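Researcher: Re-running this chain for the archive, since the previous output was lost when a drive failed. Same request as before.
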Amino acid sequence: DNLCENFMQETKTLEPSPYLDRFVIQDPAVVYLDGNSLGRLPKQTAERIDQVVGQEWGNELISSWNRHWLSLGRRLGDKIGLIIGSKPGETIVCDSTSINLFKLAWGLMGQRGNRTKIITDRANFPTDLYILESVAKLSNADIQIEMVDFDDATHQGVDEKLAERIDDSTALVCLSHVQYKSGYAFDMQSVTQKCRSRGVRTLWDLSHSVGVLPMQLADWGVDAAVGCTYKYLNGGPGAPAFLYLKSDLHRILENPIAGWFGAAEPFAFGLDYEPHPRIERFLVGTPPVLSTSAIEPGLDLILEAGLDWIRERSIALSEYFIQGFDRSLGALGYRLATPRDASMRGSHVSVSHPQGWQITQDLVRGYRVIPDFRGPDVIRLGFAPLYNQACDVERAIDALQASVQSGSFKDYSPERLGVT
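Model: Regenerated structure tokens:
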């Protein structure tokens, strides 16, 4: 407690967040550091859902489609556009991250000309790799997936390694802005500029960066991007995702899933499909109104706080943790798996330990600290600037230290089950 109090006196960045009381926190004794997997519930979300269910569905019934729901994905997309730096009409909420990645990757590869190579990295989120492989297999063309290996200890030389792989056969570079396991953050602007100079399209997964890292997709010339809304955007479990596509590609790219909501006139019910001329062409079926509506309060909180304040606080929280790591964890078998350079990381910090899964269980059950785990040995601590405090960081450091020093992690099975 004294360490935490002293640190907060040293930096105003880690004073108690003015947004903490805007979230539902049933048990203040629990330290929640899993916002990089599922963000906390904003209090206003419950009120918003009550309105949608009770008034829009319960009272206005089907008239709510025209009054409220048909424009929902586009309206929320424009709010996300303010967060990721896209122009109005370039971002829309729909489907899942994986489906959106498939749609955009397919569309971009449809404009590849005689280029046949997709570059990604081996540390990318596995489903992104699966999706790219599916695009290659279903295209009936000689498309190759080339995975770049980066040094996950130092994360040095990333730009150079990418530049070496890009050649005249490269059609697309597809990367996660922040790697899901290590927390390493690519220099999106630099990578995009290198790709553009070689005539290569870019497709970014923003799932671990949207809402915590400032970005300017339109100004940087990013071609396309996808992302989820249930992590730092606090949209709720399984909330719909979003996709971004720069304006000059809207009429060019083909959506491989030609659903009625992507048609130019969906309610004309024509038998011949004509795609919508704008971002709506990447819609497919009827949108899930309840779960989509739940996204908005989290977006409003991000916009109210501002990305500059959020990023500054994110860096302060992670720096504080790394200080604690150096003070008490490095000698206990833990290894820092996230770059020390703040410009090279997102908002989660990862540590590895040979008994990482057992320690994770011990933290949750024994010390009431909730991180998450990624095999084979990585414990991730997601710092959500809107609601995490300096004392949360200190509790996590103490718990990681005590679990190993006391051997209490040994009370838990090394067998992994369910969501981690």
